[in-house]
Write a structure and sequence with these properties.
Number of strands of chain A: 11
Distance between the termini of chain A: 37 Å
Largest sheet of chain A: 7 strands, mixed
Structural class of chain A: mainly beta
Distance between the termini of chain B: 37 Å
Number of helices of chain A: 0
Oligomer: heterodimer
Radius of gyration of chain B: 13 Å
Shape of chain B: globular
Largest interface: A-B, 21 and 19 residues
Helix content of chain B: under 10%
Strand content of chain B: over 45%
């Protein structure tokens, strides 16, 4: 399965600012996914990102708040915009070449 | 009803015990099922896929019951290192490969 490098691993940000998280995959993958995991909770899918098309967002998530880029088959970014303390969470990317899904190591975001 | 439901636990068992987790799913058309393990402050990692006929990998056995819409994970001879959260994952039907995660079941194995 693929290996994903995700960065930054953690950040502390001021409210009202934006943070862009990057995921680099060591091979070409068709679908990439972005998740949020809040403390003690499971993973919530934010959006699915395919190369060459707009990301597909899940209910409760919008492009203005979480713009996603997928410029090629090995790379994707997620931006958390106009952050508030409620955005404090772990953000993870993953891909699905199989079996199952491989995840980046996560970005632990704290908004103060 | 949530798409994927798990008992959050924690399950607190002694070393050497056998422990089983269940996970129920709501969409009868789901086709792909997995168990993931997540250690504290780490990303989830695939433990095993779940096949219709059931499958075993060492001390771990996974089973699927389509009639009752649940999957199970059995861990035999528990080790201290098995302590983790076990996430049930069910793909949405239709071949989309979009996963839905359960909230996870915490396992604590003590000496």
């Amino acid at each position: 399965s693929a290996v994903i490098s995700q960065k930054p691993s953690r950040d502390i940000c001021q409210r009202g600012t934006s943070l862009t998280i990057q995921c680099q995959v060591d091979s070409q993958v068709t679908m990439m996914f972005w998740y949020r995991q809040q403390p003690g909770q499971s993973l919530t899918l934010i959006a699915t990102a395919n190369q060459g098309s707009e990301a597909t967002y899940e209910s409760g998530f919008v492009i203005d708040k979480f713009p996603i880029s997928r410029p090629n088959l090995t790379f994707s970014t997620l931006t958390v915009s106009n952050m508030s303390p409620e955005d404090s969470s772990i953000y993870l990317c993953s891909e699905s070449t199989g079996p199952g899904y491989t995840f980046g190591s996560g970005t632990r975001l704290t908004v103060v | 009803r949530k798409e994927v439901e798990q008992d959050p636990g924690p399950f607190n068992v002694p070393e050497g015990a056998t422990v089983a987790f269940n996970c129920t799913y709501s969409n009868s058309a789901s086709q792909s099922f997995f168990w993931y393990r997540q250690d504290c402050r780490k990303e989830p990692k695939l433990l095993m896929s779940v096949y219709s006929s059931g499958n075993e990998d060492g001390r771990f056995t996974a089973q699927l019951n389509r009639a009752s819409q649940y999957i199970s994970l059995l861990i035999r001879d528990s080790k201290l290192s098995d302590s983790a959260t076990y996430l049930c994952v069910v793909n949405r039907p239709g071949g989309s490969y979009i996963p839905t995660f359960g909230r996870g079941t915490s396992l604590i194995v003590h000496p």
